[in-house]
């Protein structure tokens, strides 16, 4: 069972992360060790070559990792990214992007997550694969 609800995560995002609104990112689902996040297509996210910019995809993946971490530790907002590695696999279409995050390993202080990124236009084609580590501050 997740230690945080979708509504609680959205409350944190609305209050503390204005970049989420700028990028059009919305958390869609959260479960223990898993989450799904959507980034609405905006023409402002396009880079030369007509594809979604890499930094926007990295932000989407990082937010998915944050959702996975919060699902494990609860409302500990100061959990932070310590490492993010992304492999861009194919050019996404000009459409909404979807991120599916999953726990790889959860420890007391470090949580390792992987995220698969997809374009809604081709949901069966993996656009990028991301792994990352979050540091969780000491509790208590």
Succession of helices and strands: HHEEEEHEEEE
The percent range for helix content is: 25-40%
> Average pLDDT across residues?
96
As a percent range, the share of strand residues is: 35-45%
Shape category: globular
Counting DSSP E segments of at least 2 residues, the number of strands comes to 8
Provide a compact summary of the structure.
By secondary structure, this protein is an alpha+beta fold.
Textual characterization of the structure:
- This protein has 140 residues and is α+β, with helices and mostly antiparallel strands.
- Helix content is 26%, strand content 43%.
- The protein is built from three helices and eight strands.
- The protein has helices at 6-16, 18-23, 54-73; strands at residues 25-31, 34-39, 46-47, 51-52, 80-88, 97-106, 110-119, 122-135.
- A six-stranded antiparallel beta sheet has the order 1-2-6-7-8-5. A two-stranded antiparallel ribbon has the order 3-4.
- A hairpin with a 2-residue loop joins β7 (110-119) and β8 (122-135).
- The longest helix is centred in the middle third of the chain and has 20 residues, at 54-73.
- The radius of gyration is 14 Å and the shape is globular.
- The model has no long low-confidence stretch (mean pLDDT 96).
